[in-house]
Amino acid sequence: MDGSKLKVFVDFDGTISTEDVGDAIFREFGNPEAVDKIIDDLNKDIISSKQCWDLLCKCVEKINENDLILFIDKMNIDPTFKSFVNFCEENKIDLFVLSDGFDYYIKRILDREGLSYLKYFANKLKIEREKLIPEYPYFNPDCPVSANPKQFHIINNSSDDDYTIYIGDGNSDKEAAQYCDYIFAKNSLLKFCERERISYWPFNNFDDVTKRIKELLSKKRLKKRHQAQIKRKHAYEAE
After folding, report:
1. What is the C-alpha to C-alpha distance for residues 172 and 168, in angstroms, rounded to an integer?
2. Closest residue by Cα to residue 199 from 175, 225, 173, 223
3. Which CATH code for domain 6-18+77-122+141-238?
């Protein structure tokens, strides 16, 4: 492979975790019917991600922190993720976790799995007087659709010389993935890429991803995705 440095950006909910932890929390502790309606409105682009989280937090009238912790501790990660992290470390590939969910459960799950050293960017969640209080440290009014616009983290943590890889599965990955040279997609991200004719590689778990990246590393030269280069160029110029 040429001198390009690989940078990997990976979604958390439904990609690293086996289910969407954020959605599961609100279905467990909020009104399930109201929660489903809010999430459906998000998926139909009726409301923004930030509006969605604000409404979901209001749906939970009262929460016991110990009950929340016990629920989070039942959430599993993809059993192949740790070996993928080891593979990235062995090959000096930088890995960043990008989430439109919350640090509260991401930190706890990563700590439990011995992965607390991974760099991640997420929205913040606090519990005050048995209420869920969301905060959005990365919200950008220039990109109001997302509470945590992942593409800005891609721009801020890569350069023109890097070869960027995105791994995701859902609604919050659609915009961010387009800024990367290579996309691993499943579920609604896969359907989006097919609909928009964006090149991608389907995957079921991180063993699939590892196998494909090994093949990429064996190539003399990696071809960057033209549309991703254009998007990144515009972003760099806007800064």
Report:
1. 9
2. 225
3. 3.40.50.1000
As a whole number, mean pLDDT of residues 176-183 equals 96
Question: Mind listing the pLDDT tens digit for each residue in 48-66?
Answer: 999 999 999 999 999 999 9
CA dihedral 123, 10, 189, 71 (to 10 degrees): -50
Phi-psi label, residue 130: left if phi above 0, alpha if psi -120 to 50, beta otherwise:
left
DSSP state of 53: H
Q: Where are the alpha helices (DSSP H) in 47-149?
A: 49-59, 65-72, 81-90, 103-112
Q: Which of 149, 180, 176, 153 is nearest to 4 (CA)?
A: 180
Tell me how far apart the alpha carbons of residues 52 and 35 are, in angstroms, rounded to a whole number.
9
Cβ pair 181, 222 in contact under 8 A: yes
- By percentage, how much of the chain surpasses pLDDT 70? 98
> What's the token pair of residue 194?
């097919």
Look over the chain and give the mean of its residue pLDDT values, rounded to a whole number.
Answer: 94
- The span from the CA of 230 to the CA of 203, in Å, is 26
- CA 102 distance to own-chain centroid: 11
Query: Structural domain boundaries of the chain?
Result: 6-18+77-122+141-238
Task: Identify residue 142 by its one-letter amino acid code.
Answer: D
Q: Identity (one letter) of the amino acid at 121?
A: F
> 73-85 pLDDT, tens per residue?
999 999 999 999 9
